[in-house]
Amino acid sequence: MNQGDDFPGERRRIAVTGGAGFIGSHTVVALYEAGYAPVIVDDLRNSSDEVLSKIEGLIGASIEFYSVDCGDISSLSQLFAAPIHGAIHFAADKSVGESVNEPEQYFANNLGSMARWIAALRHHGVQHLVFSSSCTVYGEPTLLPVDEKAPQQEATSPYGYTKQAGEQLLRYVHAASSADAASSADAASSADATSKPQQAMGIALLRYFNPIGAHPSAAIGELPIGTPANLVPFLTQAAAGLRDELVVFGNNYPTADGTCVRDYLHVCDLAEAHVAALAHLERTPGDIDIFNLGSGSGHSVLDVIRTFEAATGVAVPHRIGPRRAGDVVSVYAAADKAADILGWRTKRSLHVALADAWRWQQQL
Ligand code: UD1
After folding, report:
1. 32 is catalytic
2. What domain count does the chain have?
C-alpha cells in the first residue's frame, strides 16, 4: 500500500476525471492495484454506470464516484472535503469527425470544463497532475519514429486543437503555480512566517498513440456509442457480423502495403503508464514533462487485420475504400523517454491486444 504523510494508514486519493471511459476505467483498476484510492469524476455522457460495478467487481472494493461534469465545481465540494494527492484528467470528447461538426462542444468540454477543473485543483493545492494528450499534436511527422522534441503541426481538427491547447494551458498553469510556490517560500523564510511553503503543481503530459484492446477479464473495454469511428472497434464488430464489412481507408499511401501506419498499444499498458507517471511526479515534485506513450512499432491497417485473424481464427470481412480526409500517413513513437524516465514500456503485443479486444466484443 502506498502511504504518505498526508494520508497516514490510508490509500492516497487520486481524482480521475473520465474514469468510467475506455482508458480511464483501465487506469482506475491499475491505480487501485498499485495501492491508490482512485476517485471517479465522470458525467457518463460517453459511458455507463455499469462500468462502475464492473470496476468494483474487478478490484473487490467500492469506488468513490461523482456523476458530474468535472467543470461543475459547485457539485464537487464533497470531493474536495478530504485531501487529494493527485489527479488524472481524461474527461474529454474524442471524436475527430464529430469535432469538425461541433467545434463549440469541443472547446466547451475539452477546454472550458478542463480550465475550471484545473483551477479547482490549484485552489485546493493538488500537487500532481497527469494529462491525457495525443500523438495528434505531431500531425504528419517529418521524421519517424517521432520523439517528444518533434515540432507540433497546426491542428487539422478542433479535437486536435483542444489537445494542443490543453497542453499549453497546463504549461501556463505550471508557470503560475511555480511562481506561487516561490513567493510562498519567500514568505515562509521571513521571520514571522509559520506556514509551510506551498509546492508547485507537478504535471505529466502524456501523448498517447493508438490505444486498443480491453482488460483480459473482458469485464471492461471500449464502448463506442453508435457506429465506431476507430479501427479496432469497427473491425471487431465486422468480425462479429454486426457490420457488413470493414472499409480500409485507402491503399495507395506511401507505406509498405499502401495502408496507413499507426502505433497501437494495449490499453492495460497505457493504464500502467499513468501509474508510472504519478510515481515519477512523486519523485520529482513540481516538475513538468512530456512523454510519448506507444510501443515504438508501426503497423499498417492490413497488418492489424492479418494479426487479428491469426490471433482469433476469425475472418474480417473487408474491402479497400477511399482515403479518409485528415488521416496522416504514418506515425509511431520513439518511446525511449518513457522507458528511461518513467521505467515504463509496453509489455503486451498487438496479437494479445487484438485477442483481448475480441474477447470483449464477444461478451458484449
Ligand atoms: C486519431 C488520432 C488519435 C486520437 C484518435 C481519436 C492521429 C494520428 N491519431 O487516431 O490521437 O486519439 O484519432 O479518435 O491523429 N481505419 C480504417 N477503417 C476504419 C477506421 C479506421 O481503415 O473504419 C484506419 C484509419 O485510416 C487509420 C487507422 O485505421 O489509418 C487508425 O484509425 P483510428 O482508429 O480512427 O485512429 P487514428 O485516426 O489514428
Report:
1. no
2. 1
